[in-house]
Specification:
Largest sheet: 5 strands, parallel
Shape: globular
Radius of gyration: 18 Å
Number of strands: 9
Order of helices and strands: EEEHEHEHHEHEHHEEH
């Protein structure tokens, strides 16, 4: 039987077998989406004078499309303009997002554009991570981003983490000569972090997702952000990639049902 639901091919790319119902990503019943505007379903408009206006429409976020696809509970731990530094230094605490009652089985982290392009924050080094006290991490993107992982791992040690790279896009690739290559450097760092932390995986949209070029933007963008179809498509890409990761290594996900469950795991 040649069916991707039961088999895995070594030459299969993560987005080869698109799922629209969540696939095996639906084994996670609670999911937290940590991100910026693109994780918040942000719509961009223009007024009569051409001035942009931005609206976080969470019900249109890819996280909530993911929730409706899989039946999972998905938390939007996100906001337009969010950066890892703001998340760690104030916003997560203000919003109660470190609350253990909101712990999740899976965390999907999609941050970096505002940090590296908007704020010109240094990427930093893996040595910026303090394994014993995340509050002592370096004041770099790597330090803050790792701190998010560390603090959620302290809340739910068995959770799985999925780190999202930036798709190739006309909106930032090559458009900032004073900060060149930041998206590629960000992608490389996601892989290093996935090696550093257990139960951590990379959703590499930069390598495998369609290029967000003019033709793509015509179909899936509303000015500088996605339109409803774009957010739905992103949800399908995220779920499909997670399905691929799980089918590639099912033994690593065999005990997902016990994550956050008070029932003791005896296997």
């Amino acid at each position: 039987m040649n069916d991707s639901r039961y088999t895995f091919s070594a030459d299969e790319n993560p987005l080869d077998n698109f799922v629209t119902n969540g696939g095996y990503a639906s084994i996670f019943r609670t999911v937290a989406c940590v991100g910026d505007s693109l994780s918040s379903g942000e719509f961009e408009t223009r007024d009569e004078e051409g001035k942009p206006h931005f609206y976080d429409m969470f019900r249109y976020s890819w996280g909530q499309f993911f929730a409706r696809m899989t039946g999972a509970t998905c938390y939007n731990f996100s906001r337009g303009g969010m950066s890892a530094s703001v998340y760690c230094e104030s916003y997560a605490e203000e919003m109660g997002w470190w609350d253990p009652s909101l712990r999740a089985q899976a965390y999907i982290l999609a941050l970096g554009v505002n940090d590296l392009m908007g704020q010109r924050q240094p990427l930093g080094e893996m040595s910026d991570i303090c394994p014993t006290d995340p509050t002592q991490n370096g004041k770099t993107f790597t330090g803050y981003f790792a701190r998010i992982i560390q603090q959620y791992k302290a809340i739910e040690p068995d959770a799985h983490f999925f780190l999202v790279t930036m798709p190739r896009s006309i909106h930032y690739d090559g458009s900032h000569p004073d900060h060149p290559g930041f998206a590629d450097a960000h992608a490389a760092r996601m892989y290093e972090l996935a090696e550093f932390f257990p139960n951590t995986h990379v959703i590499d949209l930069r390598r495998y997702a369609p290029v967000h070029d003019e033709a793509f933007a015509e179909r899936f963008y509303l000015y500088g952000h996605l339109n409803p179809m774009g957010y739905r498509l992103t949800a399908e890409q995220i779920a499909t990639y997670m399905d691929w990761i799980i089918r590639k290594d099912p033994k690593s996900f065999a005990t997902v049902g016990f994550i956050g469950n008070e029932t003791p795991m005896l296997v």
